[in-house]
Amino acid sequence: MGCTRGLLTRCLCGITGLFYPQYGIVLDAGSSHTNLYVYEWPAEKENDTGVVHQVEVCKVEGLGISGYSQDTEKAGLSLQRCMKRAQEVVPEHQHRETPVYLGATAGMRLLSIADRVLSAVEKTLRSSPFNFQGARVISGQEEGAYGWITINYLLGNFKQPGWLNFLPHLRSSRGTSGALDLGGASTQITFVPDQEPIESQENSLHFRLYGKNYKVYTHSFLCYGKDQALRLKLASDLQASNGSLLDPCFHPGYLRIMNISDLYTNPCIANGEQQLPFTQLHLQGNGDYQRCRMTIQKIFNTSHCPYSSCSFNGIFLPPLQGEFGVSLDARYTWREVSGASQACDNHVEQQASKVFVLLQVKAEFPKIKEKYLSEYCFSGTYILSLLENGYGFTMEKWQSIQFLGKIGSSDAGWTLGYMLNLTNMIPAEKPPTRPLSHASYYFLLVLSSSSLSL
Ligand SMILES: Nc1ccn([C@@H]2O[C@H](COP(=O)(O)OP(=O)(O)O)[C@@H](O)[C@H]2O)c(=O)n1
Ligand SMILES: [Ca+2]
């Protein structure tokens, strides 16, 4: 029964709706795969007693939507199973009022025909019984911002009134936690620096949340997610090869043949192809952690910095400040490599070296897909290089990194922050103790950059 049919039905739904939990759905269309999240919160959100939390994650089978550029219809069809799952999770009488958002990240930022893929995806989402609110490619800055909001919302760092505070030990002692997101095609770093003002305008965000102002630094490195970073590395190594590569970032015995044209199919690698006298790359692993780090190092250009301090490629990075939560995807690499969710310096180094041994014993990892297993050596080493050499997490700073999977029942990715924003669930001002009769005080998210459209 839908809530729009008939006056009596509408009245009943209006009254009972006060007591039903509410739902929102966000699809995270990443470069490598899509996840659908269902969030739930108590209906009475205006007095802020409730907490928005994740009740379901459905992993879409197949490729990320940007992988269907040759057959865009399939991008839409691939989502159907998870949309059906969402229909089971959200009670039927609430389908029509439940908003659905799709946000696509770096894979789609790199795709010239992203609009065509989005149209196919929209077709599927519109045909669902939910209240479809739009499918779009979010900017790297938004991805960083929403990831930061998610982590701090879930940790209770905004000191939201009525917060359940079920994880007091993770709550940041210094106000807010920084957010690190390590994806397949891009990586984001977002935190509140001590240093003010933030030297570069495009890295600067301003928020007013629960009556407090936050000046936040963020940067998204397109092409420096681990899948694209591997391409950057291979393209760089190839320049000095004859088409055969002995690669220290793959385990001994590993063989892969790649078409050079496939390697050069995206904007991350510019114009190198024409100069190469061969059409295929023959890659042979000869795992060596130290040498792997050296080859990875080449993709971080640290030769110039127009600011007081930089990460790499001339991008401003203020001194690191406070604790950092590493979101979702790095967890995969981390969990299997180290078996621990907490990182610390020496331990990290040893574990990364161990990858090479572990990779030879596939039987130890029966559940891991071949693709991920074969790239563990590169992935683990790349993440270490990025954090240490790219962002400057030195030995003592490692203590400040927490590898997060879930906080409570919710994944620590950008999607929750995205939904909180779009459903006006984060107030700019502290809500008064007595509920207001209207929702006008909700939400004022002021972002200084013009490129960020919220
Ligand atoms: N079991 C898994 C699942 C994902 N992953 C990796 O996690 C990353 C997820 O990135 P993503 O698809 O969200 O890409 P972005 O669009 O965020 O850059 C990819 O590099 C996947 O290969 C993994 O290493 N192991
Ligand atoms: Ca992602």
The CATH superfamily of the domain at 7-137 is identified as ATPase, nucleotide binding domain
Instruction: Give the low-pLDDT segments.
Output: 1-14, 336-351, 353-365, 434-454
Radius of gyration: 23 Å
Number of strands: 16
Content-based structural category: alpha/beta
The strands making up the biggest β-sheet line up spatially as 8-9-7-6-13-14
How many angstroms does the end-to-end distance come to? 34 Å
Largest sheet: 6 strands, mixed
Total count of helical runs of at least 4 residues: 15
Question: So what's the overall shape?
Answer: globular
Mean pLDDT: 81
By CATH, the topology of the domain at 7-137 is: Nucleotidyltransferase, domain 5
CATH structural architecture of the domain at 7-137? 2-Layer Sandwich
Which small-molecule species are bound to the chains here? Answer: cytidine-5'-diphosphate, calcium ion
Strand content: 15-25%
Helix content: 25-40%
SSE layout and pairing:
Elements: H1 7-17, E1 22-29, E2 34-41, E3 53-59, H2 72-77, H3 80-89, E4 99-104, H4 106-109, H5 114-126, E5 131-137, H6 140-154, E6 178-182, E7 186-191, E8 204-209, E9 212-222, H7 226-238, E10 244-247, E11 255-259, H8 260-263, E12 280-285, H9 289-297, E13 324-326, H10 329-338, H11 345-360, H12 370-374, H13 376-390, H14 395-398, E14 401-403, E15 406-407, E16 410-411, H15 415-422
The structure holds cytidine-5'-diphosphate and calcium ion (CA).
Cytidine-5'-diphosphate binds near residues 31, 106, 107, 186 and 225.
Organism: Chelonoidis abingdonii
Keywords: ATP-binding, Calcium, Disulfide bond, Glycoprotein, Hydrolase, Magnesium, Membrane, Nucleotide-binding, Transmembrane, Transmembrane helix
Subcellular location: Membrane, Caveola; Membrane
